[in-house]
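Just curious: can you write a single protein's sequence together with how it folds?
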Amino acid sequence: MNKSRGIHGLGPVMLDLAGTELSVAEAETLRHPLVGGVILFSRNYHSPQQLCELTAAIRALRQPELLIAVDHEGGRVQRFQQGFSRIPPMRNLGVAWDRDRIAACKAATDIAYVLASELLACGVDFSFTPVLDVDFGASGVIGDRAFHADPAAIAQLSSALIAGLNEAGMASVGKHFPGHGHVRADSHLAVPVDERRYAEIEAIDLVPYKALINHGLAAVMPAHVIYPDVDTHPAGFSSKWLKQILRGQLGFDGMIFSDDLSMEGASVAGGVVERAKAALAAGCDMALLCNAPDAVPELLAGLTAGTLNQGRAEAMRGKRSIRDLQTLRQSTRFEQASGELIRIAATAV
């Protein structure tokens, strides 16, 4: 198999796959020098063994190996279910926090350890988690994905969760910067607008980011939401949000992933090539294009050459200590963490 393409680094595009096996055409696409990662979905999963074979096939394509990611937060956003531990929605941890803060933080660490160690054992580098959005009770697409309505609680619970991810060997991705919880519109289907003043967003939504930057947060995913008090562009296409505020004012130096460019919230930037160019120009390190296979050739043909910041990319690579689920589940640490997961999963919300 030809591994020669992309040997000088990974590209700034993350793509998805059609099914449970890597096709010849997909393998060739993933060798393109502009590609740097793969995001997996439920359609790419049948069993843990199949997932291990798929991730191994992706890794064999080139050097450095492509990053492999998944949305695997828990609750209604968990792509791999049969054969994996069921991760409860993060709101369960918020309910637990209201009862016992210390116990809730311990549970967050244990749940994250289970989440991360199972994915790592199957060859997945990282999950796009945690959700740092504040639960204002407004957003249906966020809902119980959010930890809490109190940003201080979100900061502490997500810090504990990141500690569990890191313990297992996995980096974290905070989303959706600066916050998707206040808007009712779903950015998958519309272009949400958050009319609040920046001072209010800073005092509430940015609290978790301020707490986590320089304390374990490896990456950030901005929202396809417009905050007109700051910029006319959605945050994911806004250099004001990404370069001036996130990197400048908040001092974040990790990876920035765009949200899916096929979402309706990204449509204000134009066609697929214009969307990717706008995201990268605004400060994103990697542009995601999902569920739009017909647009992939246009994207790769239309983008100019580019590479990822290799230090940031390597920080996202999973560090696997246990490489199969059977061995993992026999470990004392996993058994203890699983017990805590089961307890929190039973928490009444």
